[in-house]
Design a protein that fits this description.
The chain is of the alpha+beta class and 109 residues long. Helix content is 31%, strand content 12%. It has helices spanning 20-29, 64-76, 97-107, and strands spanning 39-44, 80-86. The protein has a two-stranded parallel ribbon with strand order 1-2. Strand 1, helix 2 (64-76) and strand 2 (80-86) form a beta-alpha-beta unit. The longest helix is centred in the middle third of the chain and has 13 residues, at 64-76. The model has no long low-confidence stretch (mean pLDDT 77).
Length: 109
């Protein structure tokens, strides 16, 4: 039987940033069904260009610096197998085009 893993949300910057130990120790402890689950971290493209007191970095340069920071963190941790972009429709929105162009240059088109 497959159980749905938790979907934790955290900021990639202080004051509410989750430390890398969150992924290394905390998240994986309770998620062992099936054994050795594959961990993919979601990136919320819907936040690009949206004013937010808690996450203002999504407003800077089309969200590219925040996106880069999150992708770099994901790639730096061997426990993370990849990144998921939430939701496909946001790849076509005008406010996400700088971020989409960055993804194309980073991952290929």
């Amino acid at each position: 039987m497959w159980t749905t893993p938790p979907a934790p949300y955290f900021l990639a910057r202080p004051p509410r940033a989750a430390p890398p130990q969150f992924v290394q120790e905390g998240w994986g402890r309770g998620v062992q069904n099936p054994p050795n689950p594959r961990l993919y971290i979601g990136v919320a493209l819907y936040k690009v260009g949206e004013p937010s007191k808690n996450e203002p970095d999504w407003m800077i340069s089309g969200g590219v610096p925040e996106l880069k920071k999150q992708l770099d963190l994901n790639e730096s941790m061997p426990q993370i197998q990849g990144t998921i972009l939430f939701r496909e429709n946001y790849l076509n929105q005008p406010q996400t085009q700088q971020a989409v162009n960055y993804l194309k240059s980073r991952w290929g088109s």
